[in-house]
Specification:
Largest sheet: none
Helix content: 55-70%
Protein name: Growth hormone 1
Order of helices and strands: H
Distance between the termini: 25 Å
Radius of gyration: 8 Å
Organism: Toxostoma lecontei
Shape: elongated
Number of helices: 1
Length: 19
């Protein structure tokens, strides 16, 4: 699961880090 991350989750992670 950690190896494969959906684009939706990736976007959320990026947004969280940017915030």
């Amino acid at each position: 699961e950690r190896s494969y991350i959906p684009e939706d989750q990736r976007h959320t992670n990026k947004n969280s880090q940017v915030a």
